[in-house]
Amino acid sequence: MTVEIELLVNGKPYSGTADPRTTLADFLRHGLGLRGTHLGCEHGACGVCTVLVDGASVRGCLMLAVQADGAIVETVEGLAAPDGTLSPLQEAFSREHGLQCGYCTPGMLMTLVELLREVPSPTEAEVREAISGNLCRCTGYQSIVRAALSVAGKPFESPEAHNVED
Fold first, then answer.
1. Region(s) of the chain under CATH 1.10.150.120
2. Where is the 2Fe-2S ferredoxin-type domain (predicted)?
3. pLDDT band for position 157 (cuts 50, 70, 90)
4. Which superfamily, per CATH, for 88-152?
5. How much is the pLDDT for 158?
6. Which residues contact 129 (CB under 8 A, 6 or more apart)?
7. Residue 146: closest CA among 101, 113, 98, 109
8. Packing angle between helix 88-95 and helix 105-118, nearest 10 degrees?
9. Higher-scoring residue by pLDDT: 9, 157
10. Contacts of 86 (CB under 8 A, 6+ apart)
11. Quick one: CA dihedral 157, 124, 60, 82, positive or negative?
């Protein structure tokens, strides 16, 4: 049995069918061919599959596609302009070396898009809190935080500022 669903994904209407047990991440990747949303742990712990649903970040591996019926979904593919021009946040990730292997990058970007919409000038602590549920094994987070703050126009504290002994 499949269920008919309709979504607005990155500003474009999509309709299709999904098994009631199909996750949103799998539907985006396999049903719609939007492979920018990655899958990691598939338990909601790593944040790799983060997308925005009606403006709020969700773990695409935990939400069922049928739950997103009628929703507005934003994925990493929707951040760049139609001509391929990167968004300011994507440019900052590149400039600040906020990506290495790139596997966590889509989830990090979407998490930070939500933060920057809600808090246009976040503090370093707010950026770190926002991405605390997104795991990265390559960058050590410094470059990711620097990228987010550069878009927000905030200075980046040196790593030494966080290594204060009690």
1. 88-152
2. 3-79
3. low
4. [2Fe-2S]-binding domain (1.10.150.120)
5. 44
6. none
7. 98
8. 130
9. 9
10. 79, 80, 94
11. negative
Per residue in 114-134, pLDDT tens?
999 999 999 999 999 999 999
Give the pLDDT of residue 155. Answer: 59
SS3 143: helix
Q: Map tokens 């949303």 to a residue.
A: 37
Token pair for residue 59? Answer: 């773990």
Residue 80's SS3 state is coil
Q: What is the DSSP string of 17-29?
A: EE-TT-BHHHIII
Pick the CATH number of 3-78 from 3.40.50.10380, 3.40.640.10, 3.10.20.30, 3.40.50.300: 3.10.20.30
Nearest to 125 by CA among 96, 102, 157: 157
